[in-house]
Amino acid sequence: QLAESGGDLVQPGGSLGLSCAASGFSLEQYTIAWFRQAPGKEREGVSCISSTDGSAYYRHSVKGRFTMSRDTAKNMFYLQMNNLKPEDTAVYYCASAMNIERLIGGVVAFWGQGTQVTVSS
Questions:
Q1: Residue 23 has what pLDDT?
Q2: N or C: which end of the chain has fewer CB within 10 A?
Q3: CA-closest candidate to residue 93, choices 45, 41, 61, 42
């Protein structure tokens, strides 16, 4: 299973780091990802790291502001969010899939429970 932590209330322009801890399985062979869901909107992918080659991908609206990383020794991965904007407000979920193709196809092996990020002054 996966468990997120780090959600909080932050002012626009601020920074926040999210963590995702895996238990019961090793993240090393999985594609890992962050998703988010804002009120009244569908869940959307934010970023992912491919299990195949370690490449990181980001949705256009967060490129240059968010950085995803992983620590295989700790079996955890992270999302560092800088220059946060009110439109980043959402529940953030971590997820893992066998590969990026399955992730894109919605075949997710594990989901976290979600952590609330609110960007407001």
A1: 93
A2: C
A3: 45
